[in-house]
Design a protein that fits this description.
Blueprint: E1 8-11, H1 12-18, E2 27-32, H2 36-48, E3 51-54, H3 61-65, E4 69-74, E5 83-87, H4 96-101, E6 104-109, E7 112-116, H5 119-125, H6 133-148, H7 154-163, H8 167-176, H9 178-185, H10 189-195, H11 199-234
Parallel strand pairs: 2-5
Antiparallel strand pairs: 1-2, 3-4, 4-5, 6-7
Helix pairs in contact: 5-6, 6-7, 8-9, 8-10, 9-10, 10-11
């Protein structure tokens, strides 16, 4: 991707690993800019990887623009069998230009750098209907809290109050940052419950949040899944 100048941001399980939330992942997921120029650069990278489209939809901007993921399997000997998935739009996540502006760049070695979604954007992308994403979402925010509590910033405090899903830690943040918690309480019932010190009410509010996001994700994917099924039958 970098050799061909592709504007692509690592997301999914591989990005979770970089942030310290270990997850078993069989593939690499990328958010990409779906401009004609960038898609041409992506084709060059995929050709070098000898990557072939698997399943549906085909690799075309019209499907990426509608929110589909396109799936590839690499045949190059150095990446044989490895799967690469690309998406241009994600539910509940900002447009790619904003994601790119606040990306995180990782220097994994002297000559190897990877760009990924920022932590808040990665967390937002994990709010899906899939069971496996919610424990990972929780762990990602816990890592942020563990690493950042010694040097809190307004941005970190706002992120913790908006996204923490661990009742005990949410109670801690509310106690340590009462003014910020007061402002956040009107937007998040779990924070309001934490201000009252009621663990059971916090758990209930967190469950309600998860159910709501899962329902939104199902509604978002319903027409896309129907389109994929039609493509399968046509093929």
């Amino acid at each position: 991707m970098r050799a061909h100048g592709v504007q692509a941001l690592l997301m999914g399980g591989q990005a979770c690993v970089l942030y310290g939330a270990a997850e078993f992942s069989r593939d690499a997921d990328f958010a990409i800019l779906a401009s004609p120029e960038n898609l041409d650069r992506l084709r060059g990278a995929l050709n070098e990887l000898q990557a072939e489209v698997i399943a549906v939809p085909p690799f075309a901007s019209e499907y990426l623009e509608r929110g589909h993921a396109v799936h590839f399997r690499c045949r190059h000997p150095d990446a044989s069998g490895f799967r690469v998935d690309v998406m241009a739009h994600l539910r509940g996540v900002a447009p790619f230009t904003e994601l790119w502006a606040r990306r995180t760049s990782w220097d994994l070695s002297k000559d190897f750098q990877v760009d990924s979604l920022s932590l808040p954007d990665l967390v937002a992308s994990k709010k899906t209907q899939r069971d496996k994403d919610w424990p990972m979402l929780r762990r990602l925010v816990e890592v942020s809290y563990d690493v950042g509590f010694a040097s809190p910033t307004p941005e970190r405090i706002e992120f913790w109050l908006r996204e923490l899903r661990t009742p005990d830690l949410l109670l801690d943040v509310v106690r340590w940052f009462p003014l910020e918690a007061e402002r956040a309480a009107g937007e998040r019932p779990a924070v309001q419950a934490a201000r009252g010190g009621n663990l059971e009410a916090i758990r209930t509010a967190l469950t309600d949040e998860e159910v709501r996001e899962r329902d939104l994700d199902r509604a978002y994917w319903a027409p896309l899944k129907a389109e994929l099924e039609a493509l399968r039958h046509k093929r």
